[in-house]
Amino acid sequence: MSGHSKWSTIKRKKGAIDAKRGKLFTKLIKEITVSASTGGSDPEANPRLRSAIQNARGMNMPKDTIQRAISRADKDNSSFMELTFEGMLPFGIGVVVDCLTDNRNRTVGNVRAIFNKRGGNLGTNGSLSFMFERKGVISLPKANMDPDEFELEMIDAGVDEIEMEEDTFMITTPMEEFHNVQKKLQEMGLEPESAGLQRIPNDTITLSLEHSLQIMRIIEEFEDDDDVQSVWHNLEVTDEVSAALDN
After folding, report:
1. Residue 177 is part of which domain span?
2. Paired strand residues for 221
3. How do strand 93-101 and strand 121-122 relate by DSSP bridges?
4. CATH number of 230's domain
5. 238 and 176: one domain?
6. What is the pLDDT of residues 137-179, one digit of tens each?
7. Collapsing DSSP states into helix, strand and coil, what is residue 168?
8. pLDDT of 10 strictly over 60
9. Could you tell me if 219 and 141 lie in one domain?
10. Residue 243 C-beta-side C-alpha neighbours within 13 Å
11. How far apart are CA 30 and CA 45, in angstroms?
12. How many structural domains comprise the chain?
C-alpha cells in the first residue's frame, strides 16, 4: 500500500481482509439491504445498490448471498439509520466514522467510548468538513484495453484523476459525476472491482512509525464495531507503516 496517492491512505490493510472476512461480509450485506430498502431492488435504477453489489463481488461474496441480502430488504422490518461522527485523534489526526445502525444510543455510546478511551475528542457534525472532500473512487482491472484511449474516455466522462496501481486503474471522480462515470463504464462493458463515495483527505499528516501504528490501532478499534461501516482519516500511510501493519 503506497502512501503517495490520496486513496491509498484510507484503504484497509490487505492482511486484515481475510482475517476479518466474516465481519466484512456482514457490513457489505447490511449496505446491500439498506440500499435496496431505500432505493429499490433494481441495481440499474439504484446506483447505491449497484455500487454495494460491485463491492461485494470484489470481495468474492457468493451470488446467492448477495441476492438474499437484496430480498431481505422486503422482509426486514428493522429500521437502520445512517450516523456520521467526526472527531480528532491524538497527534492531530482527523477521523470520520460512518455507521449504519438500528440502535442510535448503542452506536453513539460505543463510538464516544473509543474517542474517550484513546485520547481523542468527538466533535460536532461538519466540524471536519474542511479536512475531507467527498469523491467517487472506482477500482477497475486493467484487462485488455489501451490505457491512453481509456483515459481519454474517462476524462470525457468527467473523472478527476486516474492512477495505475499494479494491474488496476484507480479512478477518482467528483461526487456529482460518480454515477455518470459508473454508467459510462457499464456502456463500455467494464465491471469495476469496487466503487463508492469516499471521504478523501485534502492533506495528510505523516507521523513516526510508532505514532502511526498507535493511530491505526484506534482505526481498527472503530472498524471492529458492528455498527461502523467505514472509517476515514488523514494519516499518511507510508510504505514503512504498511509493511509494519502486514507483519
Report:
1. 132-201
2. none
3. unpaired
4. 3.30.70.980
5. no
6. 999 988 778 888 888 889 888 899 998 887 889 999 999 999 8
7. strand
8. no
9. no
10. 4
11. 19
12. 2
